[in-house]
Amino acid sequence: MSRNIMILPGDGIGPEIVREACRVLEAVNDSFDLKLNFVDELIGGASIDVYGEPLTDAAVERARECDAILLGAVGGPKWDTIDRAIRPERGLLKIRSSLELYANLRPALLYPQLVDASSLKPEVVSGLDILIVRELTGGIYFGEPRGIRTLENGEREGYNTYKYSESEIERIGRTAFEMARKRNKKVCSVDKANVLEATILWREVMDRLAPEYPDVALSHMYVDNAAMQLVRAPKQFDVLVTGNMFGDILSDAAAMLTGSIGMLPSASLNKHGRGMYEPCHGSAPDIAGQGIANPLATILSASMMLRYSLGETAAADAIETAVGEVLDQGLRTADIYTSGTEKVGTVQMGDAVLAAL
Amino acid sequence: MSRNIMILPGDGIGPEIVREACRVLEAVNDSFDLKLNFVDELIGGASIDVYGEPLTDAAVERARECDAILLGAVGGPKWDTIDRAIRPERGLLKIRSSLELYANLRPALLYPQLVDASSLKPEVVSGLDILIVRELTGGIYFGEPRGIRTLENGEREGYNTYKYSESEIERIGRTAFEMARKRNKKVCSVDKANVLEATILWREVMDRLAPEYPDVALSHMYVDNAAMQLVRAPKQFDVLVTGNMFGDILSDAAAMLTGSIGMLPSASLNKHGRGMYEPCHGSAPDIAGQGIANPLATILSASMMLRYSLGETAAADAIETAVGEVLDQGLRTADIYTSGTEKVGTVQMGDAVLAAL
Lengths: 357, 357
Ligand SMILES: CC(C)[C@H](C(=O)O)[C@@H](O)C(=O)O
Ligand SMILES: CC(C)[C@H](C(=O)O)[C@@H](O)C(=O)O
Description:
2 copies of one chain form a homodimer.
Chain A: E1 3-10, H1 14-31, E2 36-40, H2 45-51, H3 57-64, E3 68-73, H4 88-98, E4 103-109, H5 122-125, E5 129-135, E6 147-150, E7 156-165, H6 166-181, E8 186-191, H7 197-209, E9 217-222, H8 223-232, E10 239-242, H9 244-257, E11 265-269, E12 275-279, H10 296-308, H11 313-328, E13 331-332, E14 342-343, H12 346-356
Parallel strand pairs in A: 1-2, 1-3, 3-12, 5-10, 8-9, 8-10, 13-14
Antiparallel strand pairs in A: 4-5, 4-11, 6-7, 11-12
Helix pairs in contact in A: 1-10, 1-12, 6-7, 8-9, 10-11, 11-12
Bound molecules: 3-isopropylmalic acid (2 copies).
One 3-isopropylmalic acid sits between chains A (89, 92-93, 248) and B (194-195, 224).
Binding site for substrate (chains A, B): 96, 106, 134, 224
Enzyme class (chains A, B): oxidoreductase
Pathway (chains A, B): Amino-acid biosynthesis; L-leucine biosynthesis; L-leucine from 3-methyl-2-oxobutanoate: step 3/4
């Protein structure tokens, strides 16, 4: 029984870092006999250049038939002036929504070897291990009505709709509780229930789910306080669950606490646990093509894919151990370089992981 | 010509810290012959307890006739179970909206004496001086329609509306450009124009204003990136301007970078420069009544009031100099205490500022 993996390199540093992740996947494919089959597709600017749109319907259909997707990153200045409706990011939103990848898992994990890369004091972040569970197919990202209209007085107004139904909240809530069960058994649900009705319902549904997970402690926090607490004392958190917009903001802040966003993978899953895996960082057009991008977040995304969507724990463990080893060897790409370590490029980093495997 | 100042102590530590700020105001009132006249009113839980609502219409009317307002903080567990529509926070939203206090200025300033209180490395934050300009009477906080409704399939949905008109964006944009003129001449406008139409218009209006302020450099940043950059390298910013919701989140994160949110004042101004002044921190019910709260943010809010709404620069300078002196003397309330300094209570801190004046 072979499994089809869709590869979406995307733009900017995407192709370079995905190439290294694919080499790693091919290596474990052989050594663990995983029977993975790779299918290449275009997304983002790369797709715009060929098809005039950031993700074709045909690509979505092929993605549906795959067991998992590995994505690099999308976007870049080349496409910054075209109509917003067909910019690279829209390809990302389209695949998330079409495949109902509602559960976005974004770990913020500090590698002990990289504690100096953080802008926070070592005692504040050492040992940091948070999982942000972000709702990814609802909320203000997809709410209708939306647009820019002309008001009666002649001026224009831009508007969006923030909404969540009970079932949307419930399914992401369950993901958070289930993830917490495998971790430190704490869920902090982040909302703005003192102002927004959409999040009053959010809080209510989380409270309703809690008794079904008596082994997990649920707490609530307003989003402004959560942003503060992430800066002040991030280790107080285990699993943070929140909506699409707040999750976008808080997961980036949390990732940056580690000082090494080039290390952080993410998963976006549907209700069957199928999903898309990608690094937390963007397409970094400023360093694209220079061979200096950090491929580790993408390599770790591949490992996350093996673990969550393909059930290949041994292969996933092997990759993670190999990444730990190259860090122990002192190898660092430019983004995580600190004095006393050895600066390497994208391919050298990939080589080192392959050698450690 | 006397000026009326409304005093709204509010809840939790509000009364304690406002009391110290009033002593300071009375002192400068005498020494600088300011002819200030104080009017006391209730807001938040204190008003709920007496009138059954967090801010009466009569209080709003009296506030309209005042030249400025000094607020402590609102909220606390005592009122956490009453109907959300009349909780303490609603009083705050009502006064902001009724008086059209659309321009919320939240400085994130690191006092050199307090660099150790930050959770960030000293080199990342020393010298930090950012001004967040947050739109305060529009956006998703006040957008209609809003509520919780039952869908056709029987489940409920919570919804809110995020909207901004050109004139709302323009006036807050002008505030940001004008503030930047008096500072380092950089405005970074924060939006999510890659996803939200409301912020596409936001970006457009900011770009349209820019040529009127050729001496100020305008840049744009997505909110997720802004949250990251605040953690990674906050000193890149001068003035940050953004909508109500993003401003709520980013200003709290920025304040926490300093490690001393107990030091940070804020102003909320209307188009005539009249306004309300309050500390950035909340009502801290956990330490209310213990006499240990830091009154300096409220004292500095009083000084900001003298500067922005009353044009009393000399008195404002005197207060700020006095605060600097007590910090130099090594006096610290518990929230900013680090070893080697002298821990003092709320009243002692107020005494010290009065002595330094
Ligand atoms: C590119 C953008 C549309 C996207 C988002 O906002 O979700 C990105 O910031 C992310 O977090 O994956
Ligand atoms: C109390 C709450 C309604 C308020 C807000 O969200 O504006 C507070 O967080 C603030 O920032 O002043």
